Predict the structure.
Amino acid sequence: MIRVEQLMSNEKCKPVQYTTAHRQRGVVLFVALIMLMVMTLIGVTGMQNSSMEEKMVHNVRDSDLSFQAAEAALREAETSLQVAVLKEFDGSNTGLYQPATRGNPPLWEVSSTWTATGSQSYTGSLAYLSARPQYIIEELPPVPDPKGSVAADEPLPETRVYRVTARGVGGTDKAITILQAAFKR
């Protein structure tokens, strides 16, 4: 019995000592939560950037569609000016005009010009547009032809010049392109 008592007396209640790993368990959880929050914020920011880039790409495509539509209408209008005899530019023919007089806004800035009765519509087919491309042609005052005769008794021949204005609308009505070209005949 002495031995048991000695053993018991030698093994007095010692205070429990924790190792460093046991004390840091709560800190690891806290650090892991902070890292998870940081990763979530990075992911959300990446998604927002991706969404903005998609909108930008859509707007660029819409703008390109409107440009292509206006370009197609411009080419069709130039082709219509290559016929042997032109219609009158007195306002009686749709889309054929004399230029605006001084003090009035140019025709392409007037919204009523771009209606079905104010302009010619493109006759070809283009996909993904919200409206058909349109064009107007203005007959400008004649100009002397610099390549004409140099004879003193003959006047210089006149050349006719036309201003062609085309309007294209993209996939939405927010993308509008207006192109102009001068056509010499």
User: Anything to note?
Assistant: The mean pLDDT is 85. DSSP finds three helices and seven strands in the chain. Residues 57-184 form one domain.
